[in-house]
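Wait, can you check?
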Amino acid sequence: MWYVFPNMNNVVHNIANHICKGEKLLVSQNFPPLDSSFIGKDIIPDHQALIRHFSPFFSLINSIWSQDFVSDGNDNWFIGLFERKVN
């Protein structure tokens, strides 16, 4: 998502247009340390913001958030399974 974050609303809308009601979408996204300054933080500061971006079109079925408090790298991971809502 870091490559498309400036157009997040359009990206999510386009993804939703290619997925039918009831179909699943798996989103896997890494994050830098959340307390650091990083490009895109104003749009996707954490995994909850990512869920909010998808929520107009998708219901979150299940997710995993793994946060590494020791590493200075992009070692925080969100994996979410979403289901397309009714069109």
Residues 5-84 form one domain. The mean pLDDT is 92. The beta strands are 24-31, 58-66, 76-84. The helical segments are 8-17, 47-54.
